[in-house]
Amino acid sequence: MHGFATTEFQLVLLRRMADFHPEPVEAALHRLGATRAGMREANKRWQAMLRSPRFPHGARRYAAVLGPPEAVLPRRIGDLDCTVQQWALPLWPDLRFEILLGPGGGASPPWNEWLVRAPGSAPPRLRTLEDLLPWSCVVADVGAAFPPAAPREGSAPTRWQLDFTAPDAAGRLHSCTADFTWGLLQEVRTTGTAPGTDPA
Q1: pLDDT per position as a tens digit, 67-86
Q2: Where are the alpha helices (DSSP H) in the chain?
Q3: Which residues, other chains included, contact 89 with Cβ-Cβ below 8 Å and sequence gap of 6+?
């Protein structure tokens, strides 16, 4: 873990996002004073650490890299008493990196690991498809703006999808699928005109 801290962890998150939109990733790399080669190396080191028996497990993994969590909060999931831990990341000041821990506590693998809206941070105004810009919002923002949104697993453990219906600027409703990496919106695809909507 020598030399692996918040900056390198942000590079790990960026590595998965680069598959969708290289432009904001390049801008983020510039802000961090990093390169694409450095991003790939950070991701390679992170994957090697995950496989190492000496690397801490569960929540301790993130505390070892990011330091103590900014917030530790109870969360009720059905009949289960769970816990979330959150960390601030400089690249996304209005968001927090959050892990969801089951009743087993920090020794067990997190149930979820993603970026969420920071407490006190207002979500963007999402009214139409045109408002859904890459990196502008997280899963919960879209779900709240366009209910009822149906979550689906993405193509990799760090990816999620939401199926929902949203209007375009002209008011026509569309069936949509949003793709998220580490909880951050990457792109929205329209999969057809919503039933009952005049496509004209």
Answers
A1: 999 999 998 888 888 999 99
A2: 6-17, 22-32, 36-51, 59-66, 139-145
A3: 6, 9, 10, 13, 95, 96, 97, 115
